[in-house]
Design a protein that fits this description.
This protein has about 250 residues and is of the alpha/beta class. It has a single domain (about 5-150, about 170-200, about 245-254), classed as 3-Layer(aba) Sandwich (Rossmann fold), CATH 3.40.50. It has twelve helices and seven strands. It has a seven-stranded mixed beta sheet with strand order 3-2-1-4-5-7-6. Helix 6 links the parallel strand 2 and strand 3. The longest helix is centred in the middle third of the chain and has 14 residues, at about 155-165. The radius of gyration is 18 Å and the shape is globular.
Length: about 250
């Protein structure tokens, strides 16, 4: 699939669901918000790029503490939601801009911070996007990447990628911590730290948020019912399809 074709899939998948992501508890809540706020505290003049901003939750959390936040996403409908919510919240320093992670329309060394949360698994080329992040970061600038992570073991990885793409056809890949560390280093960024969190996904809201077709919902449930104990126990799969997954929080510097 070409980058243009993938871009069209992402636009289709997230256009009609944009408003649902603004109210999604998974996206609106998270202990990592406090970490992001602590990182920008005292940096009232800083410029922040919320890369793959979705419904703008990161932008809304850090905007009161910095000079400007660019909320950047591929979906025009998502950006409309962000702009409306920012206006309602009185966050006049949140600016929306549309585009791909692999081709950032910003000058070199434009940002003190680049934050990306639950977006990287949609990018067509993680390595290219990370090199773009390094390019737009100022020397000494900080990047934070938060995303669902693959456990790395082939059996568990295959299961995760399968249920993800059945639920959302714009899914590209959940990378393992080892894959992240390698690609971050190859992009010329220095990893400062990386930690693992667990995220519980309630099945009904998880598939409804993407308006997953019934045939794919049934396929996910059938797959979950047929896997072995190792997979079922790792992902803590419940009878209703709800499950837990790993989330990587990685900090890097230019």
């Amino acid at each position: 699939m070409s980058d243009k074709a993938h871009e069209q899939v992402v636009q289709r998948q997230f256009g009609e669901q944009a408003a649902a992501y603004l109210s999604s508890a998974v996206h609106a809540q998270g202990v990592e918000f406090a970490l992001l706020q602590a990182e920008v505290a005292g940096r009232g003049d800083a410029r922040v790029l919320d890369l793959g901003c979705g419904a703008g939750h990161v932008a809304f959390q850090v905007a009161p503490l910095v000079g400007e936040v660019i909320a950047y996403d591929l979906s025009a409908q998502m950006l409309e939601v962000v702009a409306g919510a920012a206006s309602q919240r009185g966050l006049g320093n949140v600016v929306t801009q549309q585009g791909m992670a692999e081709a950032l329309p910003f000058a070199d060394a434009s940002f003190e911070f680049v934050f990306s949360r639950y977006s990287a698994h949609h990018w067509s080329d993680l390595g290219v996007a990370l090199r773009e992040v390094r390019r737009v970061l100022k020397p000494g600038g900080v990047a934070a990447f938060i995303d669902v992570a693959s456990p790395g073991r082939p059996l568990l990885d295959t299961h995760l990628q399968t249920v993800e793409v059945l639920r959302d056809t714009s899914h590209v890949r959940n990378y393992s911590p080892a894959e992240w560390l390698r690609q971050v280093a190859e992009a010329g960024l220095q990893t400062r730290s990386h930690t693992r969190q667990r995220l519980r996904l309630e099945f009904a809201s998880w598939v409804e948020r993407m308006r997953t077709p019934a045939v794919f919902r049934e396929a996910i449930l059938a797959l979950q019912a047929s896997v072995g104990d190792e997979v079922r126990e790792y992902f803590e799969i419940a009878a209703d399809g709800s499950f837990s997954t790993d989330v990587l929080v990685l900090w890097a510097e230019r």
